[in-house]
Each structure stands twice: as C-alpha cells, then as structure tokens.
Amino acid sequence: MILILVIPIFGQTELSFRQLSVNDGLSQNSVVSVTQDSDGFLWIATQEGLNRFDGREFKVFNKKFADITQESHLQLGKVFADSKNRIWIIPETSVPELLDPLKNEFIPIKGINAANSLHEDLNGNIWIGTFSGQLFIWNESIQSPEMIWTDPAREILDISDFDGQHLL
Fold it and tell me: Most buried residue, 15, 77, 83, 104, by most Cβ within 10 Å?
C-alpha cells in the first residue's frame, strides 16, 4: 500500500493523502522502491511487478523486485529516475536494466551482475555498485557501463555524494 501526499500550490497548509492498494491496480501492497520521473509518473517497485502510476491508473510491467531483509543480509530492488528522465531498475535478477521509451520495455545492461545500488552524482553521472565489489560508471558516449574499481572482498551496499568531487 502506498500513500500519496498532495500539497496545494497556493501556499495553503492543508495536506491530503490518497492511499493506493491492489484494489486500485497496484501489483502488491508491499512496496520495495519508489521514484517519480519528470513527467510526473510514479514508479513503484514491488515483489510482484513494476507499477507506473499516472495519477489515475496503473500500468504494470512484468518485473519482480527482491525484498530480502535479514539480519545478515539486505537486498532490496531499486527503481530510479535520473535527471535525463531515464528509468533504471535493479530487479530480482540483480542485473540492472534501462527503460527504452520507444519500445516501452526494459533492456538489461550487459556486463553487470549482482547490482545493488544506483546513484546519480552532482554532475549527472550514473554509478552502479555491486555485491561483488565492482563500481561502474555509465558511459554516455557509448551507452554502456565501464568498470572503474573492483575489490571482490567488499560489497558496495550504497553510493552517495560525499562532497562535490568524491563518492562515499
């Protein structure tokens, strides 16, 4: 189940919420990851599908997302909208995928397995980290990932900006 917050534009302090569930077309009530693209679509990842919500109805993509939360291991699927309005996902296969908007289908990114994290830095670069200790940057000119660091003894669990020049 997901709640949507609506804030009026006119500076009023009144807030309203709308609850979305399987009764509205959501593929499952337990949500793993959420993002919003610049067109206003909400992208909602669940264990039973990727849902695109336009404010009225859902379109469900046949993509399932991991939701493993154990004391010794955390693996959650991801959906991410970047600043170029591209939709990236890490489904339960752990192979990242990118939406082809012309075909309206997701294309697996070759050469990356065990992906766990997606991040866009302050310069608009897309970074992908893996459980197998690999860090990739998306090369825009060739539309392909490039591995820039690897240490199989480490897992990359998350990526974030440390300052304007370094990732953490």
Answer: 77
What is the Cα–Cα distance from 141 to 138, expressed in whole angstroms?
Answer: 9
DSSP 166: -
| Residues written for the chain | 168
Extract the tokens encoding 160: 């974030």
Residue 155's Cβ-side half-sphere holds a number of Cα atoms within 13 Å equal to 11
CA 141, CA 94: separation in Å to the nearest integer? 24
Under a CB-based contact definition with an 8 Å cutoff, are residues 32 and 77 in contact? Answer: yes
> Two tokens at 71?
């004391």
Comparing CA positions, the residue from 38, 89, 36, 82 lying closest to residue 64 is 89
d(CA 36, CA 76): 18
The structure tokens 């534009």 sit at 9
pLDDT tens string 18-41: 788 999 999 999 999 999 999 999
- Rounded Cα–Cα distance for residues 61 and 64 (Å): 9
